[in-house]
């Protein structure tokens, strides 16, 4: 039986790399798609070195609609089909709304929000063409349920991704396409390190103190690993989640309840 095929954007490192490795271990052929060709190659090589695991690397800037459609076409040419699209790529910066640089704001919205929009559009177009149904999973965030100071653009992008996912879930259900999201809290990745480094500078404190302050807010008293998050994507991608759509799952160790 041919392997199911998954595209994971932003899978050259961090949460995306953990998702790629988790799903490869579960039998998916993986398209490791990232703007950084070197890290994408590295993750694909790591996967291919495991017994019976398959991956290929692809370069994509998710902010570019043509790039995202080209990615889907290339993956279908290489692997014959598409079953799962994970819109994981995302960027963040820390600044007050008043001080936010307009170019940085536009780039963030282009990558996080429009990148997810194009991903849904390209994946759903392919699923409809195949007539197979499919699964789309989007990276939202704890920042999609509660805004934080110094994360205005980021929070706006993540709230919007949740709304977009709900609309897509309703529109695509007749084609047996489910659309869900994951809402991590604090995950130990380069993106989170960047947030804590900048926040520490702005608050005139150390990185260690800033990080500890954040971890103190987590009921489980530890930040998540990328592998913690990948377990939830594994569930959402599996047949166990066939009857779940339009949902967003908090993975924050009990920081917020709603
Ligand atoms: N780390 C955390 O604490 C949290 C992360 N998230 C979300 O999870 C997702 C993954 O985050 P991390 O792994 O922490 O980030 P990361 O910065 O460690 O990794 C992101 C990956 O995306 C790639 N990327 C960036 N822009 C891209 C573009 N335009 N096109 C294609 N690839 C691009 C980067 O090259 C990198 O490999 C993001 O959407 C982020 O907003 C959500 C909540 C918390
Ligand atoms: C990076 C991120 O999504 C949070 C919640 O800080």
Write a structural description.
With 258 residues, this protein is of the alpha/beta class. The protein has a single domain, classed as NAD(P)-binding Rossmann-like Domain (Rossmann fold), CATH 3.40.50. Helix content is 48%, strand content 15%. It is built from eight helices and seven strands. It has helices spanning 14-25, 37-48, 65-79, 102-130, 152-172, 190-202, 207-216, 226-237; strands spanning 5-9, 29-34, 54-59, 84-87, 134-139, 177-184, 248-251. Strands 3-2-1-4-5-6-7 form a seven-stranded parallel beta sheet, sandwiched between helices. Helix 1 links the parallel strand 1 and strand 2. The protein is globular. The N and C termini lie far apart (42 Å). 1,4-dihydronicotinamide adenine dinucleotide is lined by residues 9-10, 12-16, 34-36, 39, 60-63, 88-92, 111, 115, 139, 141, 184, 186-187, 189-192. The site of butane-2,3-dione has 7 residues, from helix 6. It is an enzyme of class 1 (oxidoreductase). Its EC number is 1.1.1.304. The active site is at 154 (proton acceptor).
CATH topology: Rossmann fold
Main sheet: strand order: 3-2-1-4-5-6-7
Count of domains = 1
Q: Globular, elongated, flat, extended or rod-shaped: what is the shape? A: globular
Taken as a percent bin, the fraction of beta residues is 15-25%
Mean pLDDT: 98
Query: From the structure provided, what is the oligomeric state, counting identical versus distinct chains?
Result: single chain
Unreliable stretches: none
Ligands: 1,4-dihydronicotinamide adenine dinucleotide, butane-2,3-dione
Q: State the total count of DSSP E strands.
A: 7
Structural class: alpha/beta
Query: How is the main sheet built?
Result: 7 strands, parallel
Spell out the helices and strands N to C.
EHEHEHEHEHEHHHE
- The amount of helix comes to 40-55%
Rg over alpha carbons: 18 Å
CATH architecture group name = 3-Layer(aba) Sandwich
């Amino acid at each position: 039986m041919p392997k199911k095929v998954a595209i994971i954007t932003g899978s050259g490192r961090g949460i995306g790399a953990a998702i790629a490795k988790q799903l490869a271990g579960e039998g998916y052929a993986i398209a490791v798609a990232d703007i950084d060709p070197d890290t994408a190659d590295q993750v694909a090589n790591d996967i291919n070195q495991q017994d019976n695991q398959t991956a290929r690397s692809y370069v994509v800037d998710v902010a570019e609609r043509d790039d995202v459609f080209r990615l889907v076409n290339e993956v279908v040419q290489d692997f014959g089909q598409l079953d799962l699209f994970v819109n994981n790529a995302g960027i963040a910066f820390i600044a007050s709304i008043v001080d936010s640089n307009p170019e940085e704001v536009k780039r963030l919205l282009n990558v996080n929000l429009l990148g997810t929009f194009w991903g849904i559009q390209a994946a759903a177009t392919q699923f409809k063409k195949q007539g197979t149904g499919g699964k789309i999973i989007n990276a939202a965030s704890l920042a999609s349920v509660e805004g934080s100071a110094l994360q205005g653009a980021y929070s706006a992008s993540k709230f919007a991704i949740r709304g977009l996912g709900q609309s897509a879930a309703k529109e695509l259900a007749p084609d047996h396409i489910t659309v869900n999201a994951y809402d991590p809290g604090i995950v130990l990745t380069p993106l989170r390190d960047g947030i804590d480094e900048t926040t520490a500078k702005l608050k005139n404190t150390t990185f260690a103190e800033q990080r500890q302050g954040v971890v103190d807010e987590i009921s489980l008293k530890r930040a998540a690993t990328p592998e913690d998050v990948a377990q939830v994507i594994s569930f959402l991608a599996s047949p166990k989640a066939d009857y779940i759509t339009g949902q967003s799952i908090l993975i924050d160790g009990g920081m917020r309840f709603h």
